[in-house]
Amino acid sequence: MSDAELGTMLARAAGEELLRVRWESGLEGKELGKAGDAAAQSVLAALLAEHRPDDAVLSEEAKDSPARLIASRVWIIDPLDGTREFSEGRADWAVHVALWESGDLTLGAVAIPDEELVLNSAEVAPAPERTDGAPLRLAVSRSRPPAITEPVRAALDAELVPMGSAGVKISAVARGQVDAYVHAGGQYEWDSAAPIAVARAAGLHTSRIDGSPLLYNDADPYLPDLVVCRPDLAPRILAAIAENTDGDS
User: Fold this and answer.
1) Does 105 share its domain with 19?
2) Would residue 60 count as lying in a domain?
3) Is residue 106 part of a domain?
């Protein structure tokens, strides 16, 4: 099985397990979210141990190991991105599976289980062209929009589109549902690795809010900010950020 095939299989399997937990566990709220996190982690850990036993893993739901820092292959996974949305019965949550190899992301698979969808960087289509005259749309957190949102919205004269999971937001840019997603409120590598790989493959601009590259498999997995957008919008977005921040995230 190729890495691309495995990535899709992993993301889909974890998504199916999450749907099973939602419908069969009888749990609600935070307890449902905790059960979902644990169940999806168990599925992904077991499948990676079976199919790629020599690879390292960085997961939100597992203890980190320094061994990954000297590994040539590291799977970066978020078993359930958007735990709040999952526990509320919403559809805007995702499963993230990414592969980092010798310095960069080489694969990303993002499952959006309620849509029966898996986006894989190995085969994702280019982001669709914009419709002439359509207003620009900016994805934003439905619960914790960062302070930088308003300056970017104003610079683009954009509509705000609230969404849950970071993976859903980034995937929405790749799918042409929105034009950009900007975050500066704190994230970790597993929050963005898989969807960033998909976005790059779809031809989108991806960077930190200061324009520097997004780097993965760092000793500290904290990766607090990002910009994902259509390439033609990147100069306006980065300029708006620079004018309204002091460079801190």
Assistant:
1) yes
2) yes
3) yes
Same structural domain, 109 and 142: no
Instruction: Please tell me whether residue 116 adopts helix, strand or coil conformation.
Output: coil
**CA–CA separation, 212 and 101 (whole Å):** 20
Q: What is the pTM of this model?
A: 0.95
Locate the DSSP E strands across the chain: 56-59, 73-81, 94-101, 104-112, 117-120, 137-141, 159-163, 180-183, 205-207, 226-229
Cα–Cα distance measured from residue 107 to residue 10, given in angstroms and rounded to the nearest whole number: 12
Which pLDDT tens digit goes with each residue over 42-78?
999 999 999 999 999 999 999 999 999 999 999 999 9
Which residues define the annotated binding site? Answer: 60, 78, 80-81, 191
Domain final residue pick, 88, 120, 152: 120
Q: Residue 82: how many CB atoms within 10 A of its CB? A: 27
